[in-house]
Write a structure and sequence with these properties.
Helix 3 (52-69) crosses helix 4. The protein has 130 residues and is mainly alpha-helical. The protein has helices spanning 2-25, 37-48, 52-69, 73-93, 99-114, 117-125. It has one domain (2-125). The radius of gyration is 16 Å and the shape is globular. The termini are far apart. It is built from 6 helices and no strands.
Length: 130
């Protein structure tokens, strides 16, 4: 049962990040115009850098593929951790309407990184003193 839950969580998280990353890289969906003012200011600042969104969406796409394929899953989870944290904080402080989905993404990431048997020992190993 636990292995089915782990597989479902990995595939779901992989689909979310692969789809979001690819959509952003290929500009398949226009940016929403009804964002809260503070979030619009935040996004405008990030877009002004010129490199941030391609880097973010490229990282999401690659990590989504890694999760979907099952290769280097602990690496993908560690790379996605700050992205997931930012997603939760942005929705917590700037756009609360998206907070439920952000929390689900956060919980899936935490489950896979710290509680799923195939991956948790690798991620937890990063926190051990040598």
């Amino acid at each position: 049962m636990k292995s089915k839950l782990t597989l479902a969580a990995r595939i779901l998280l992989g689909l979310v990040f692969f789809a979001a990353g690819l959509t952003g890289l290929l500009n398949l969906v226009p940016p929403p115009t009804d964002l809260p003012e503070r979030l619009m200011t935040f996004n405008t600042g990030l877009a002004a850098s010129g490199y941030f969104f391609p880097l973010l969406k490229g990282t999401e796409t690659v990590c989504g593929l890694l999760l979907l394929s099952g290769f280097f899953v602990p690496l993908a989870l560690v790379v996605l951790a700050p992205i997931v944290l930012n997603i939760v904080l942005v929705h917590g402080f700037l756009a609360p309407s998206g907070l439920p989905l952000a929390i689900v993404i956060g919980l899936l990431t935490v489950y896979l990184a710290f509680f799923a048997d195939p991956y948790s020992h690798v991620v937890k190993g990063l926190f051990r003193r040598k």
